[in-house]
Amino acid sequence: MTSETTQQTIDALNLLLERERTALLNSDLDRLVAQYDEKKTLIDTLNGSDSAAAPQMKQLQARALRNQELLASALQGILSVANRMSALQRIRQSLDTYDESGQRRTIEGQLTRKMEKRA
């Protein structure tokens, strides 16, 4: 791979990593999925290049790690919401409380299903 081609690939990956960062900050997960193939292709292309662009590769690595941290935070947030929704669902089905003597007591919830018909 020529140094010009390597530089073009590095520039393209830099732009992609910035778009990826913007998508992560805006919670645009669909855009992340859409960019995956392009990112994989660019990284595979760079893996086959010479090491003359090592300083620029370190910048790319730093940006990729920054995006990885953002992605990990987004995943942690999604898992937190899923856990909270699961806890709320359990509360709807039953509620565990403690009586005056400290004994655990389960109160079964009433599951009411309503169907609303709109014209």
What does this structure look like?
By secondary structure, the protein is mainly alpha-helical. It has a domain at 3-84. It contains three helices and two strands, in the order αααββ. It has helices at 3-25, 29-47, 54-93, and strands spanning 94-98, 104-108. A two-stranded antiparallel ribbon has the order 1-2. Helix 1 (3-25) packs antiparallel against helix 2. It is elongated, with a radius of gyration of 25 Å. The mean pLDDT is 86.
Give the overall form. Answer: elongated
Largest sheet: 2 strands, antiparallel
Structural class: mainly alpha
Strand content: 5-15%
Q: Average pLDDT, to the nearest integer? A: 86
Q: What is the total tally of β strands? A: 2
Number of helices: 3
How far apart the termini lie comes to 65 Å
SSE succession: HHHEE
Contiguous runs where pLDDT drops below 50 for at least 5 residues = none
- Using the CA coordinates, give the radius of gyration: 25 Å
With strands numbered from the N-terminus, the spatial order across the biggest sheet is 1-2
